[in-house]
Design a protein that fits this description.
2 domains, transmembrane, 14 helices, Growth Hormone, Chain: A, mainly alpha, 384 residues, transport, membrane, 78% helix
């Protein structure tokens, strides 16, 4: 039986809420509120920046204050923000409150990952199970977003606000708390971690995660224009992400059992997954047919299954009780920064060269990231 079911339910609920909000953000700002796409992009940039600030805050609070306290604070901020937008989804209130929403989920995610990192000692596949629960929630949320948006914009934000509120109640009544260790002096610094080479490895892992998310963000943004210019409909483009969610939910339970046997060390699992990410772009460089996009998405999904839960688990090997939340916030920061700059960077490469050239650059960047990971260490803090 799975342990820590309440933690997995929280992961599912908050990702369901995010899946309801994010797919309609650009559409709502541009189509309903009548703002230029550049304004929508700027709003999302501020949202990502606030989320990254929340990552830092959540990680530090987890280490110095409480294990579940910052999770509750972050989810409460996110819930209240969505309820305010549900009452008055108007301009300029909407983008302002969306920034607070980003701050809330950033705080919640960093501290929640710290909590999962602690539970991993009791359940070795805790990150994998949490990732699976998150994808179930994201799939349900994304599929429901269009339905709720067609009914009412108020309902579109009310439902995820309620979901975050339910997560807060579970936090309060079902999660066990642990008092964070207040570590004074240099012992709370990642640089002084007793594992030789830990700081270098953490930086290399964070850089690889940053590069991966730059590429992943293209599928959520610039690929829509590329696909539709080659005859695909918006519905066919959206279907790729339904495929992504369904395949993740179906294959990850098998991946959880098989991949550790093939790659006993997390280092080589992440390197393999990063190369798979690179190959997803090779599928669509010279053959922009819909079947190639499907095959590219399947490779992307497989790489996601291999990499996304493994990186925080790998980083947790370098953590001590006094910096576990801070180290987990590093992966959130790296991913958030990649998501923030990825769409802009991709569009600049496209304008300067072409879509195929961008795919080649992204493929090469993933290969470089995978190569650099060879220099990282992979062992438990006790030296095993």
């Amino acid at each position: 039986m799975l342990k820590h079911k309440w933690v997995l339910l929280i992961s599912m609920l908050i990702n369901m809420g995010i899946g309801l909000v994010m797919p309609i953000t650009t559409i709502y700002i541009h189509t309903v509120l009548g703002k230029p796409l550049s304004v929508a992009g700027t709003t999302l940039l501020f949202f990502s920046g606030a989320s990254m600030v929340g990552n830092v805050i959540g990680g530090r609070l987890f280490d110095r204050w409480s294990h579940k306290g910052p999770v509750i604070v972050g989810q409460t901020i996110a819930s209240l923000s969505l309820l305010i937008i549900a009452l008055s989804p108007t301009w300029p209130l909407y983008p302002i409150v969306l920034v607070f929403y980003g701050l809330g989920i950033g705080t919640a995610f960093a501290s929640f990952n710290g909590l999962v990192a602690i539970l991993q000692a009791d359940e070795p596949l805790m990150f994998n199970y949490s990732f699976l629960a998150a994808n179930v929630g994201m799939a349900v949320g994304s599929l429901s977003a269009g339905v709720l948006f067609a009914i009412s914009i108020h309902l579109t934000f009310l439902v995820p606000g309620i979901l975050f509120g339910l997560a807060v109640l579970i936090d309060i009544f079902k999660l066990e708390d642990g008092n964070a260790q207040t570590v004074k002096g240099p012992t709370n610094n990642v640089v002084s971690n007793p594992i030789h080479g830990a700081f270098r490895s953490i930086i290399l892992i964070a850089f690889a995660f940053f590069v991966i998310w730059i590429g992943y963000s293209q599928w959520n943004t610039n690929l829509s224009t590329y696909m539709t210019s080659h005859g695909a409909s918006v519905a066919e483009y959206s279907a790729l992400f339904t495929l992504n969610a369904v395949v993740l939910v179906l294959i990850q339970p098998f991946g959880n059992r098989i991949l550790p046997r093939i790659f006993p060390r997390k280092k080589y699992q992440v390197i393999f997954g990063t190369v798979v990410f690179a190959c997803s772009f090779l599928m669509i460089i010279h053959q922009p047919h819909y079947i190639n996009f499907v095959m590219g998405m399947l490779l992307l999904t497989f790489g996601e299954m291999v990499v996304m839960p493994t990186i925080p688990a790998w980083l947790n090997e370098f953590a001590t009780p006094g910096n576990r939340g801070t180290i987990q916030s590093i992966s959130s920061l790296a991913g958030g920064f990649g998501r923030a700059v990825g769409p802009l960077l991709g569009s600049l490469i496209i304008e300067a060269t072409s879509y195929p050239a961008m795919f080649m650059w992204l493929c090469a960047a993933d290969i470089v990231g995978a190569g650099l990971l060879v220099l990282a260490i992979d062992r438990q803090p006790n030296g095993k």
